[in-house]
Amino acid sequence: MVNGKLTHAAILLFGKNPQKYFPYTTIRIGRFKDQSTIIADHKIEGNLVNQLQRAEETIKSLINKGYEITGESFVRRDVWDYPLEALREALLNAIVHRNYHSMGSEIQVKVYDNRIWIWNPGTLPEGLSVEQLKKSHSSIRRNPLIADLFFRAGYIEQFGSGTLRIMDVLKAAGHPEPEFEEHGNGFTIQLFKRKGSRLSKQELQDLNDRQIAALEYLKDHESINNSTYQKLFNVAKSTATRDLKELTEKGQLQRIGKKGYGTHYKLE
């Protein structure tokens, strides 16, 4: 409070209906097939903490949860299209650093088949560049009261580390490096899906354990050939040929080279 009156931050953080006073402080989340084809459209309202939680749940409803095989025991575990920690950090970045004086502009999230695009009103503060976001940098807080509450609540580990944490989490999970960009009068983060590493429940049921393990092998190796497949799984050439052909037909692998010597397979 200032001079006995609630600040804008107090209403945004604790208000029962902040949009009564600030109708543009919302998050718009859409599922897109392409740039112009919208499959789903969601508007997230409420106070900022609730918006973070509801936005994350909404995005999770629009992406896939697949299955991944880990270790020599071929244990299956659930894996989302994007690491949830990186997704949450990107949403936090948009909420904490957006320009709340930008009238008529809301945070926008576009979920495509292979990427997630997040835009928030407000360019980078003076003295901070896109390239600096990719290395250790000081925090220049546009909204110190909002940032401080999220820090006290445990959502932010330390100021100025959010973009680095996004990059580290994505890299550890095998995803391409995210893209940061000043776009119009706002700031954009794009997260990209990792190719060939997650299977839907139906796809998993259609593969045998050797084929699943082969896809896991290719996460750490550039390619696999028939001879390597035989040695890995102690199978005959005909079995390896059949397994690899099925993976190619199902769109999991890409065949490189013609029949015979030199033929190998990469993740599609």
Structure description:
This protein is of the alpha+beta class. The chain folds into 2 domains: 185 residues, 2-Layer Sandwich (Heat Shock Protein 90); 62 residues, Winged helix-like DNA-binding domain superfamily/Winged helix DNA-binding domain (Arc Repressor Mutant, subunit A, Orthogonal Bundle), CATH 1.10.10. The chain is built from 9 helices and 10 strands. The strands form 3 sheets. The chain has a 6-stranded mixed beta sheet, covered by helices on one side. The protein has a two-stranded antiparallel ribbon with strand order 3-4. A two-stranded antiparallel sheet has the order 9-10. Helix 2 packs antiparallel against helix 3.
What does this entry show, briefly?
The chain is an alpha+beta fold and 268 residues long.
Strand order of the largest sheet: 2-1-5-6-8-7
Succession of helices and strands? HEEHEEHEEHHEEHHHHEE
- Measure the end-to-end span: 56 Å
Name the structural class.
Answer: alpha+beta
Largest sheet: 6 strands, mixed
Number of strands: 10
Work out the radius of gyration: 23 Å
Looking at the overall shape, the CATH architecture of the largest domain is 2-Layer Sandwich
